[in-house]
Amino acid sequence: MQTNIRRSLVVGNWKMNGDKSLIGKMQSCLSQVDLGNMDWAICPPAPYLGLFDSSVRLGVQNVSQFDSGAHTGETSVSMVKELGCQYVIVGHSERREDNFESNEIVALKVQKILDAGLTPILCIGEPESIRDAGNVFDYLTTQLNAVVTLLGISAFANIVLAYEPIWAIGTGKTASPEQAQEVHAFIREYLAKQDSNIAAGTVILYGGSVKGSNAQELFSQADVDGGLIGGASLNPEDFLSICLAANQ
Ligand code: PEP
Predict the structure, then answer these.
(1) Domain extent listing, the chain
(2) Which of 174, 213, 212, 192 is nearest to 204 (CA)?
(3) Does the predicted model carry a pTM greater than 0.90?
(4) DSSP symbol at 150
(5) Which of these, 58, 73, 54, lies nearest to 13 by C-alpha position?
(6) Homologous superfamily in CATH for domain 8-246
(7) Ligand 1 pocket, 165 CB below 6 A?
(8) Distance from the CA of 190 to the CA of which of 72, 105, 138, 203 falls in 20 to 30 A?
(9) Coil, strand or helix: which one is 7?
(10) pLDDT tens digits, residue range 172-225?
(11) Model pLDDT for residues 91-121, shown as the tens digit of each residue
């Protein structure tokens, strides 16, 4: 991790995994070390949110774009705020696919999260077919434009971005450090064209099969400010080693 104005961040996305016993194991593993040079957070399934102690910074994997009302099965941003969450993952490719979340719905969710004073972790990333066709930058530009159109570039002062190539999520196929850096630099340049100060301060995470064994190399790239971690966040020792890689 290079010295810069951005603080590195590692976020665990448990998805629909884990159980009550993992909460205790994770807390005791991470409390044994000083991770003072970085931030870390866990996004467990929503029913577990109230079971963590205050040493763990929490996030959720989704919120509704609505405030309240007849939306069975949904969770509002004010509810997760009451439970002490700071981060909300939004636009994860699994939600875009499973729940048909369009770029416009994702942008509305980002707006709700920002209005509540929480930090969106806005996920963007291309499927393999788009990479093979050489259209990665156009694809990501469309995803980013939806948020800029609704909220303006100034909103990015309070947004964490996560670049997650879909072909690397849960597949064991990690983007090479050079591939990750190329895209992260493109994203930062996209922001810089609109506001150079915001671009310099925006934390951009990489997500896609990050493990203890490859985290250091990925995080050493100039524009990679940490990681959004799926599978490896279910293993306390592996998650800890990823945090240590970011704690430089
Ligand atoms: C994710 O789903 O956000 C993710 C990065 O998953 P994995 O680390 O398992 O590839």
Answers:
(1) 8-246
(2) 192
(3) yes
(4) H
(5) 58
(6) Aldolase class I (3.20.20.70)
(7) no
(8) 105
(9) coil
(10) 898 999 999 999 999 999 999 999 999 999 999 999 999 999 999 999 999 999
(11) 999 999 999 999 999 999 999 999 999 999 9
